[in-house]
Amino acid sequence: MSTLFAIIAGVGPGTGAAVARKFSAAYPVALLARNPANYEDAVKDIQAAGGKAIGISTDVSDAKSVQDAIAKSQKEFGDRCAAAVFNVGGKFVRKPFLDLNLGEFESGWEVNGRGAFLFSQSVLPLLLKSTQQSTHPPTLIFTGATAAMKGSAQLAAFSTGKFAKRSLSQSLARGFGPQGVHVAHVNVDGVIDIERTKEWMKDAGEDAKIKPEAIADAYWYLHTQPKTCFTQEMDVSV
To answer: What are the two backbone dihedrals, phi and then psi, of residue 174, each rounded to the nearest 5 degrees?
Structure first.
């Protein structure tokens, strides 16, 4: 087991848990989510498999909450991070633009914009410390969505936040790539196959949804890319 650790923000029963399990084969992992119920099963599974994992209740849109989560992770695993994944989705608001109130509009940015900013500022110093020690380039990955690529009608609040996160990832990639940190944005362009979407697209066939484990495999692939071949944006679809 590596002396470096991985941290995943936005752990739930789908992508976040799958990514945590994937990376736990190589690193101790810190799993972050607002609701402990979202990470408790994954933490137990990782520990039962012989890995090291802790869960931390975290509101990524709150600076103190993020700082406390990073401090707890460092206390448990040290101050060198091999991989950080920002998988927080944020509130989904579908409403005609003229019917939006300010709170609804800002909800899209609070997590995807401010949350991504707070998380990145907290983990990048730990990633930078790991450039010489890590077997693979230290990596910061953002989970994105189709809304980060195009704004659709009635999705002004949601798309604004996703665009902000994608733009931040591009800026960070250009700023920290030359320093040895791989920053990537992944556009998950499709429905993820989880319990909540079980009844969706039932007539489309078993391959119509994206498997969380396949997304985790894609994230591991990004993490293991050499510095001479960093992918900054990846599309995952079916």
So the answer is: -75, -25
Q: What pLDDT score was predicted for residue 190?
A: 63
φ, ψ of residue 127 in degrees (nearest 5):
-70, -40
Q: Report the pLDDT averaged over residues 178-194.
A: 84
User: Which residue, 185, 80, 186, is CA-closest to 135?
Assistant: 80
DSSP string, 15-36: HHHHHHHHHTTTS-EEEEESSG
179: which DSSP letter? G
The 3-state secondary structure of 97-150, one letter per residue: HHHCCHHHHHHHHHHHHHHHHHHHHHHHHHHHCCCCCCCCCCEEEEEEEHHHCC
Percent of the chain with pLDDT over 90: 71
Task: Indicate whether this model's pTM tops 0.90.
Answer: yes
Check if the beta carbon of residue 172 is closer than 8 Å to that of residue 116.
no
> How many angstroms separate the CA atoms of 183 and 232, rounded?
6
In sequence order, which residues have a C-beta less than 8 Å from that of residue 132 and are 6 or more positions away? Answer: none
Residue 127 corresponds to which amino acid?
L
Residues 203-211: contacts with CB within 8 Å, 24+ apart? 207/238, 208/238, 209/238, 210/236, 210/237, 210/238
pLDDT, one tens digit per residue, over 189-220 is: 766 655 565 555 556 566 657 788 899 999 99
Q: Is 54 helix (H, G, I), strand (E, B) or coil?
A: strand
At 202 the pLDDT is 59
Beta carbons within 8 Å of 95's beta carbon, 6+ residues apart: 104, 154, 157
